[in-house]
C-alpha cells in the first residue's frame, strides 16, 4: 500500500471539559474514498475542523504527505478541497463573482475546470448567492471545493440538499476523482451512501473511532438477520440461547453472528416451517457496532 | 482580497462620510443667518456667562464662534472626532469578526492564504477607509471654509489630520478586542464605550487640575486639537505614541488571531 496522504495521529480535542474527539488515529491513502460515519455530535465535524485548522487541537498530530498540516502552509492548502456541511458564502456576490473571487486565489488556470463543473451541475452564474436555494448553494459549494483540482477532498455531508439527479452527478464526479488517484474524506450519516461510494469506513462514536474497516470486509462479516417460523419456537430460542430477538406468535427474528452451517444444524433438530436469512447491509453493521460499543461501555 | 474588502466596506464608508458632510453642509447653510451682526452681542453675552473651564473644555476660549472656521475649531471638530471615532470603532469591531459572525470564515480559511494575509488585508482596508473619510471631510470643509470667508489654511490642514490619530488607535483597539469573540455585537458596544467615555474624559480633564489626569485615559488626547489651534503644530510625541499604540494593538491582534479558534 502507498504511504498515506493524510495521517491523523492520536488527535484529541476538548472544548473545556467537554470531549470533542479523543485519541483518534486515522490514515487516508491516495485514491481511496474514506467514509467517516457517525451520528450528529459524534466528533466528525470536530475532526474535520481540526484538519482544516479552524480549531486548535488539544493534542495529536495531523500530517499531509508526511508533513505537519500547518494552518499557514498555503501550498498544502491549495491541494485541499473543502466542503463544509453548512455552506455560508458571500451573499452580496453573484455566482459568477464568487467563482471569479475563488479563482483569484490560485496561481494555475481554473477556467476550463470551472466551465465544466458549472455545466455539469447546471448552475446559473448570473444568480445572486442570496437567491440560491439550498440545493443550488450546495452545488456551488461542490464546484468551489473541486474547482482547483485538489489532491485531497474533505467533504462534510456533501449530498444533503441535493436532488437525486444531482446526487448521481456528484457520485460520478467522486468516481472520477478517485480514478485520478485523489483522496476523499467523506463524512456522512447517510449510511446507504457508504457501500455505494466508499472503499473504507471509520465509525466514530462519542469522540472515539470505534472501527475502521474496508466496506468489503464490513459486508463479509458473518452478520445476518434470521427469521424463523416454527411451532417449537420457544424451544429454538432456548436452544440458541437468544436474548435479543423479536417474537410474534410462532415467528421470531434475531441478529445472528453464528456460523450458518452450525445454525442450520441446530435448527434441523426442530420443525421449521419458514426460514429467512438476510444479509446485513452497512446500516445494520453500523448499528451492530454501535450496540456492541454500548455493551462494552456498560460492561 | 483587498479589492473585495474595499467593496464590502464601501457602503458603510459612504454612509458615515455622508453623515459628516451632511452635518457640515447644514452648518455652512445656516451659519450666516445665525451668527450675523444682530446676534453677535447676544452670543458674546451668552459666552461670558459660561465658566472659563467650560469654555476651555470646548476650545471656546481660543476660538470665536463668529466665523465658520471658528465654529469648526470649537464644536465642528468635535463632530469629526466623534463620528470618525465611532466609525473606526465599528469598523475595527466588525471587519474581521464579520467572517465568523456570517460563518463565511470556513470558506475563507480553506483558501490558500495565511491568517496573517487575512488580517493584514482587513487592517489595510480599515486604515485606508479611515484616512479616506477624514480626507473627504477635510476637502469638503476646505471648500466650505473657502466659500465662507478667509481662514488660516496651514492651521486648518494640521487640524484636519488630527482625527486620524485617535481614529487609528480606536480602530486598532477594537480590532484587537474583536479577536476574542465571534460576534460583532459584543465588540461594537465596547468600542463605542471607548469613544464616548474617552471623549467625556477629554472634556472633563480640561476643567481642573484635579481631573487633568483623565486626559491620559482618553484616546482623544492623541488628536490634541487645542495645541494645534494655539501653536499650529502637531506634537511629534503624539504621532509617535499613536504609531506605537496602534502597532502594539495591531500586532497583538495578528498574534491572537493566528491562534484563534475560528468556529
Brief rundown of the structure:
In chain A, 35% of the residues lie in helices and 28% in strands. Chain A is of the alpha/beta class and 299 residues long. In chain A, helix 6 links the parallel strand 7 and strand 8.
What does this structure look like?
The complex is a heterodimer of chains A (299) and B (263). Chain A has helices at residues 44-51, 74-77, 95-103, 111-120, 134-146, 164-179, 191-197, 215-220, 233-240, 260-267, 282-298, and strands at residues 6-15, 18-28, 33-37, 59-64, 67-68, 80-83, 152-156, 183-188, 200-205, 208-214, 224-229, 245-248, 251-256, 274-279. Chain A starts with 5 loop residues before the first strand and ends with a helix. Chain A has eleven helices and 14 strands. Chain A has two domains: 6-214, P-loop containing nucleotide triphosphate hydrolases (Rossmann fold, 3-Layer(aba) Sandwich), CATH 3.40.50; 222-279, 2-Layer Sandwich (Alpha-Beta Plaits). By secondary structure, chain A is of the alpha/beta class. Chain B has 263 residues and is an all-alpha fold. Chain B has one domain (2-259). Chain B is 77% helix and 0% strand. In chain B, helix 7 (115-148) runs antiparallel to helix 8 (153-178) and helix 8 (153-178) runs parallel beside helix 11 (236-259). The longest helix of chain B is centred in the middle third of the chain and has 34 residues, at 115-148. Chain B is elongated. The two termini of chain B are 21 Å apart. The model of chain B has no long low-confidence stretch (mean pLDDT 86). Chain A binds chain B through residues 49, 52-56, 71-72, 74-75, 77-78, 80-82, 84, 86-90, 92, 101-102, 104-106, 144, and chain B through 1, 4, 8, 102-107, 109-116, 258-259, 261-263.
Amino acid at each position: 500500500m502507498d504511504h498515506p496522504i493524510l495521517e491523523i495521529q492520536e488527535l484529541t480535542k476538548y472544548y473545556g471539559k467537554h470531549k470533542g474527539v479523543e485519541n483518534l488515529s486515522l490514515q487516508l491513502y491516495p485514491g481511496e474514498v474514506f467514509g467517516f460515519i457517525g451520528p450528529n455530535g459524534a466528533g466528525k465535524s470536530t475532526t474535520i475542523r481540526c484538519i482544516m485548522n479552524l480549531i486548535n487541537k488539544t493534542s495529536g498530530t495531523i500530517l499531509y504527505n508526511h508533513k505537519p498540516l500547518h494552518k499557514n502552509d498555503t501550498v498544502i492548502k491549495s491541494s485541499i478541497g473543502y466542503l463544509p456541511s453548512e455552506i455560508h458564502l458571500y451573499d452580496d456576490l453573484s455566482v459568477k463573482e464568487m467563482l471569479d473571487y475563488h479563482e483569484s486565489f490560485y496561481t494555475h488556470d481554473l477556467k476550463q475546470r470551472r466551465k465544466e463543473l458549472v455545466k455539469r451541475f447546471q448552475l446559473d452564474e448570473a444568480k445572486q448567492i442570496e437567491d440560491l436555494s439550498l440545493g443550488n448553494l450546495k452545488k456551488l459549494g461542490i464546484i468551489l471545493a473541486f474547482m482547483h483540482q485538489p489532491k485531497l477532498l474533505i467533504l462534510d455531508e456533501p449530498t444533503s440538499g441535493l436532488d437525486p439527479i444531482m446526487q448521481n452527478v456528484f457520485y460520478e464526479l467522486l468516481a472520477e476523482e478517485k480514478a485520478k488517484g485523489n483522496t476523499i474524506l467523506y463524512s456522512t450519516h447517510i449510511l446507504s451512501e457508504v457501500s455505494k461510494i466508499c472503499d473504507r469506513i471509520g465509525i466514530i462514536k462519542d469522540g472515539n473511532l470505534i472501527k475502521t474497516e474496508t466496506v468489503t470486509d464490513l459486508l463479509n462479516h458473518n452478520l445476518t438477520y434470521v427469521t424463523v417460523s416454527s411451532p417449537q419456537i420457544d424451544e429454538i430460542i432456548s436452544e440458541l440461547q437468544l436474548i435479543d430477538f423479536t417474537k410474534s406468535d410462532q415467528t421470531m427474528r434475531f441478529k445472528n453472528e453464528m456460523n450458518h452451517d452450525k445454525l442450520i444444524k441446530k435448527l434441523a433438530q426442530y420443525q421449521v416451517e419458514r426460514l429467512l436469512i438476510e444479509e446485513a447491509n452497512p446500516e445494520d453493521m453500523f448499528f451492530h457496532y454501535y450496540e456492541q460499543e454500548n455493551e462494552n461501555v456498560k460492561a | 482580497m483587498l479589492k473585495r474588502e474595499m467593496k464590502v466596506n464601501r457602503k458603510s464608508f459612504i454612509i458615515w462620510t455622508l453623515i459628516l458632510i451632511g452635518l457640515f453642509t447644514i452648518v455652512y447653510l445656516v451659519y450666516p443667518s445665525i451668527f450675523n451682526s444682530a446676534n453677535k452681542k447676544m452670543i458674546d453675552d451668552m459666552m461670558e456667562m459660561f465658566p472659563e473651564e467650560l469654555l476651555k473644555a470646548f476650545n471656546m476660549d481660543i476660538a470665536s464662534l463668529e466665523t465658520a472656521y471658528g465654529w469648526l475649531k470649537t464644536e465642528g471638530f468635535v463632530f469629526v472626532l466623534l463620528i470618525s471615532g465611532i466609525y473606526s470603532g465599528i469598523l475595527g469591531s466588525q471587519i474581521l469578526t464579520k467572517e465568523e459572525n456570517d460563518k463565511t470564515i470556513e470558506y475563507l480559511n480553506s483558501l490558500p492564504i495565511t491568517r496573517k494575509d487575512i488580517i493584514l488585508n482587513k487592517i489595510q482596508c480599515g486604515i485606508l477607509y479611515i484616512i479616506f473619510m477624514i480626507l473627504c471631510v477635510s476637502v469638503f470643509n476646505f471648500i466650505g471654509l473657502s466659500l465662507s470667508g478667509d481662514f488660516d489654511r496651514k492651521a486648518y490642514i494640521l487640524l484636519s489630520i488630527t482625527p486620524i490619530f485617535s481614529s487609528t488607535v480606536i480602530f486598532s483597539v477594537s480590532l484587537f478586542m474583536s479577536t476574542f469573540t465571534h460576534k460583532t455585537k459584543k465588540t461594537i458596544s465596547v468600542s463605542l464605550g471607548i469613544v464616548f467615555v474617552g471623549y467625556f474624559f477629554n472634556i472633563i480633564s480640561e476643567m481642573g487640575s484635579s481631573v487633568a489626569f483623565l486626559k491620559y485615559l482618553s484616546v482623544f488626547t492623541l488628536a490634541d486639537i487645542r495645541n494645534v489651534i494655539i501653536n499650529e503644530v502637531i506634537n511629534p510625541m503624539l504621532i509617535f505614541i499613536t504609531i506605537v499604540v496602534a502597532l502594539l494593538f495591531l500586532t497583538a491582534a495578528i498574534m491572537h488571531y493566528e491562534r484563534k479558534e475560528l468556529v
